[in-house]
Amino acid sequence: MLLSSITPARLSSTLAASTVSPIILAAVSVIVPLTTATQPTDTTLVSAQGSTSSVATNADAYVNSAAPNQNHGNSSRLIAKASSAEFYLNFTVPQAPSGYTWSSAKLVVNRPQSDSAGVLTANKVTSSWTEQGVTWNTRPTFQSTQVSINDSGTTPSVSFDVTPLLSTGTLGFVVRSGATTSKAFSSRESGRAANLVLTKVALPPATSTATSTATSTATSTATSTATSTASTTTSPTPTATSTTSTTSTTTSPTPTATSTATTTTSPVCAPTTKGIPCGLYVGGAYGSNSDPSTFESQVGNTLGVRRTFWGPTGVNSAITTVKADIAKGRLPWISFKLPYTWAEMAAGKGDVWVTDLATKLAAVDRPVWVAFHHEPEGDGIIADWVAMQRHLSPIVKAIAPKVAYTTILTGWHELYDPNYSLDKMYPGDGIVDVVGFDLYLWYGQVKTDGSVYLKYDDMDATYYQAISAWAAKKNVKWGVAESGITDLASEKWTTWINDQVTVLKARGAVSYSYFNTSLNNMGCTWEITTANKFGQYTTALKQTSRVQP
What we know:
five-stranded antiparallel β-sheet, 24% strand, alpha/beta
């Protein structure tokens, strides 16, 4: 999972000594008509039409290193220039209406005229400042997590998706530029104040209404009022999003997934020679690449698929674990960090290493799924990562024909971060057998400031629908490589894990892998330790497909 500041790559940091980003918050795309009409300058809602509301900034000012002690709070302009000028915006964000939550936020800043192109970034401010007092020497601190846009300089306004930075109450941003020439924007003194456009969605019911009946064919009528889009990450840690307290839980009913089919036994399907099933594998990661046998005895079934994570020196240990998984009837899904950079691997520097790995996997002579550098978002130049995948895949496929070549992404970045896309992260037809996604329900995350994240994301509406449509277009298999629900959320949505399996089967996914570990949890209780979670997972695991013995 990731956000340049948000993602469990979880085991990687412990097992592979690497940094990965799992992202994860969903936002809704909002198109806001922009005009040159005078905007209100107070903090009341400017508009509240349908599902969107707009809040105007109540303070703004720029600071300039050339005049480090001068305040520009009365200026009609807001200036940003690389390393020498930046501007600050302040908002008061109201609580969402009763029965709703804010699902996304767009920061819209107007400009008085066209100027140069360049990258703009927005960060959340973490200390106090005043419009009439802030200077370069007294400017406030801000989070390292940022959202960015490529500004053409020609549009009447710029829009940042700041959903990952959203919190209620006082909310400030600093906007900076990578351009070496000054970029000017309109301050509230000009009558064209910056606005924060909020989108609301109804909260889900406190308990799940999903029902199921055993039939031979799984179908789903999942619907949701949640929509989505957004942007940031976890350079292995999810970025903080909401600061709601743990006390507000008023909900209003929204449709939840309803399934017309689940099975009560573990069906054996006819997978391909690479272990790609006719149904869906249910399984997960366990502990620190720990033996899951004890856990399996508690849930009364063996994992259908098992995720493990390895560094470049862990090839022999990985092979030993692969053999043990196969002996137990689990499909091994192994992730490796690499001995060299992506560019070096793409240029052939790691060919000896990958050839050794592929040769040892071929000797196992059973289906195994392999991934190289999962959750790459925020870890380097993506073009190099794609080139690396294109180079390694033919080597693995030529040596080990029973190995499925996979890539594993956060999913959030590809759908909601403009720096990424599913197509951009796809190495090409014939290169990848399965694309995995690390998708979590973050409701119940305890953030570093002690607040609790209380936004519910409908996983089907937020992720599954878009991913399955894309995978069908590419004719590539897809699945969930990591997933989790917090203890708090599991008490509210008591069939959530099984509901995911049911909907994923209907969407044509081939895996559901649960992140059952306390490692790299980013304030979330993913681990299956409560009676409720054991019950949920036990039911879900009964639906797993299995590799034929």
